[in-house]
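Attaching the record inline, Q. Sequence:
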Amino acid sequence: MIDSSMRQLTFVRANHLEWREVATPKIGNGGQAIVKPLAVTRCDLDLYIANGIVPMKDDPFAFGHEIAGEVVAVGEGVSGFKPGDRVIVPFQINCGTCKNCQLGFTNGCTSVPPFSAYGLAQSSGTDWGGGLSDYVLVPYADAMLVNVPNAVPLTIAAAISDNASDGYRTVAEPLARRPGEEVLIVGGFAQSVGLFSVQAAVALGAARVVYTDFDKDRLAKAKSFGAEVQELNYAADMPVKDQFPIVVDTSNIRDGLIYALKSTAACGFCTSVSAPGRTIDNVPLAQMYMKGITFDISRVHARNEIEKVLNCACHGKIQHQEVISTHVPFSQAQDVMTDPDIKIVFEAD
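Structure, as predicted:
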């Protein structure tokens, strides 16, 4: 029996989140499901929304979007899931049937408003609910949900909903095109994504993985994962020592992105997981053109990556739990959301 009301962690304004009593979502058509979140990891973006570095309007919305949990109810048209199933809920809403979804571009589903996601209502103008709630409604259950094998703890599965898959995709496709190449990961404020990228690059057979950052804790973790590490404070016109065929920018700093672009070798690939400001001066376009590099700046197509990343977790190829630094019960989420830990996982009380 699902109660008619539930608790929901709500973003009120910067540095102010609170638990509120709200109506429990209900199944509205045969293709929907309700999931009880049991583990929710803090996305790197959540930290900066919570502490005000990424500004939001004072317009309350449900918080949290890296979700793993248990199915508690399904519509009559759902064929792939049943109550009791352990599942990952991708953070982006996608229908599975539109042209973009069929092509694997699940971050651009055309059946819902652009940028639709859990815990990020102000991006799309639609509140889809948040992971730090007693229940979430999954509007396209068969298309979105992914079963979690018993071998994978839900605390790990939650991160695969977004950041772990984001880190994986930054190196997986480039290394598939150019196996065994050297990889540079420019670390920074997308802090767990950069470390997940390191893990994926090592697991996928990169000949050499170099990780740069200004944070000693992240440098130490990257080194423990098998990367060569270099402590760097990114600055305009800083010298570039080496050129890499595969480069990942997770700095979320203008000078970090420029350093990544300048460090990309001729005919190489550079992927950025964030946009450090709406516009950036001094992007080395002429140099990029002459070298012929491919630059990708985009959000992850989460649903398209999840099963590949989950397979790595199942077979022990990637130890995602080593990135998670802190375990906290749901009831304390509002108190620690702005703590500077690398990766927090919230577990249902």
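The mean pLDDT is 96. The two ends are 18 Å apart (CA to CA).

More tomorrow.
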